[in-house]
Structure formats: structure tokens, C-alpha cells
Design brief:
Strand content: 5-15%
Order of helices and strands: HHEEEHHHHHEHHEH
Number of helices: 10
Helix content: 40-55%
Radius of gyration: 19 Å
Distance between the termini: 17 Å
Oligomer: single chain
Strand order of the largest sheet: 3-2-1-4-5
Length: about 260
């Protein structure tokens, strides 16, 4: 679809659109303009528009996938920040000299509760080489859940630790944004029976507002479709507000 091309530089400061990158060549080869966004932002929009807590005016969405991204809705609008870096909650430093994060820093929220870290802690035999990206994630997460269900001590202890770090990181978000809802998506939903009890306890202990400031902590009901739903909703909104050109050859009806 059409729209403005939104560029989000990598965490290391390098512009991903510079150089002879295949994605860059493919984008520049298109006749129409593109509108790009990250999955956390689109997931937050999807939750706002179609989730179980749809139309909650102030919410935070955590992706819970390979990385940990955050999408923040404030007064019904997506928070982007002054240069597009708003919502990079996965790179809040929680542990000094902690595990290495994909961004090159140590002790990030993502390095402690991202799915790669979860598998490494809970089922290291499934993690493989740290130099290679994880594959077959759904199967590996299902195996972690199976071991936890069977009461494997290493697995359950690791998931408790993950839940505690999830609660600590989430408390920072509640203290910053005081949202009405915190929605956890991705693999957090699959592992919720084991990570949510310690997460809720830690969240309550580290959130300054009594009773979490009225925040409802919920699991996404959209699964891995949240970002796609958010992208579709963004396109519809852009057409409705005339921010995108209508299809060639005639007028188009609204929804």
C-alpha cells in the first residue's frame, strides 16, 4: 500500500537503508511508496482496535517473541517519540553486566525475558549454538511448556526467574506510563501458567501506584496476528483520513 516510508535506524545507530542491502533494493524498486512500522507498534494498534481490551485509551503491549518490543498507546494514539524510537522497552537495562543482548549491550530486558533467553535458561539442550539464530521456535516453546507441565525442576525454576524479570521490567512501564492495560503477547501467552504468577507478584512489589494504578494485566487473545491486524487497521485508517491515495480508476467506498 501507499504512504510515507518510515525509517527506523538500528539500535547500533547504523542506518539499515544504507549500502547494498537486498531489502533496500527491493523497496526502492517498487513503483509505489510504502509505509513501514515495527511489529510492536502494529501489535499495539491491533490490540487497541481488535483485542479483548479494544479501545482502551492508554495501553502498553509487549510482543513476547524473539525480541521484546513495546507498543504504547496514549490517549488513543500510538506513541512514536520524536525520532521513531518510542517504545524500545526491550532495551531498558535491568541487570548490570547481565547476558548479552542482540543490540550488543548487556542486561537488557529482552536479554532476560526474550524467547531465546527463555529457551537457553529453561531447556539449554534445545538452544543450540549461540552463534546461530533459533529455529522451530513454536516447537521448542511447546517442549518447554511440556517440561514445565511435567514439573521438571530446571525448567520451572527458569520460568520463575523469567517471570520475576518480566515483572520488574513491566513495573518500569507502569511507573512511566500509568496505563489502563498491560497486554502480553507472543510466547508469553504460551508460558503464562508458569511466568505470570511470579510476574504479577514482582510487578505489584515494584509498581509505585497502589493496585498497579488500576492497570489490568492481560494476555493477548490475538496471538501472532496482532501485528497483521494492526497493519490492516492502519491502512484502513489512513484511507479513511485521506492520508493515502485511493485506488486508481475511480472512487472507493469506506468501510
Amino acid at each position: 500500500m501507499c504512504g510515507g516510508l518510515v525509517e527506523h535506524p538500528a539500535a547500533d545507530g547504523q542506518d539499515p537503508w544504507q549500502g547494498d542491502d537486498p531489502l533496500r533494493r527491493a523497496v526502492l524498486a517498487l513503483d509505489d511508496e510504502l509505509s513501514l512500522d515495527n511489529d510492536a507498534n502494529l501489535g499495539a494498534v491491533g490490540e487497541y482496535r481488535r483485542g479483548a481490551l479494544a479501545h482502551t485509551q492508554n495501553l502498553v503491549y509487549l510482543t513476547g517473541e524473539v525480541g521484546v518490543g513495546g507498543g504504547v498507546i496514549i490517549n488513543g494514539a500510538l506513541m512514536r517519540g520524536s525520532s521513531g524510537y518510542g517504545g524500545e522497552v526491550g532495551h531498558i537495562t535491568l541487570m548490570q553486566d547481565g547476558p548479552l543482548c542482540g543490540c550488543g549491550r548487556r542486561g537488557c530486558f529482552e536479554a532476560l525475558v526474550g524467547i531465546g533467553s527463555i529457551i537457553q535458561q529453561a531447556a539449554p539442550d534445545l538452544a543450540g549454538s549461540t552463534a546461530q539464530p533459533l529455529t522451530d521456535l513454536a516447537a521448542k516453546v511447546a517442549e518447554v511448556a511440556r517440561r514445565a507441565e511435567a514439573g521438571d525442576p530446571r525448567t520451572t525454576a527458569a520460568l520463575v526467574r523469567v517471570g520475576e524479570w518480566l515483572g520488574r521490567g513491566s513495573a518500569i512501564l507502569l511507573n512511566l506510563f500509568n496505563p489502563q492495560a498491560l497486554i502480553l503477547g507472543g510466547y508469553f501467552v504460551t508460558l503464562a501458567p508458569w511466568i505470570m504468577p511470579p510476574a504479577r507478584r514482582t510487578l505489584a512489589a515494584h509498581t509505585i501506584a497502589p493496585n498497579l494504578g488500576g492497570c489490568q494485566v492481560a494476555l493477548s487473545t490475538l496471538g501472532f496476528t496482532a501485528a497483521a491486524r494492526g497493519g490492516a487497521s492502519s491502512i484502513i485508517d489512513a484511507i479513511d483520513t485521506a492520508r493515502l491515495p485511493l485506488p486508481r480508476g475511480g472512487s472507493a467506498a469506506h468501510r
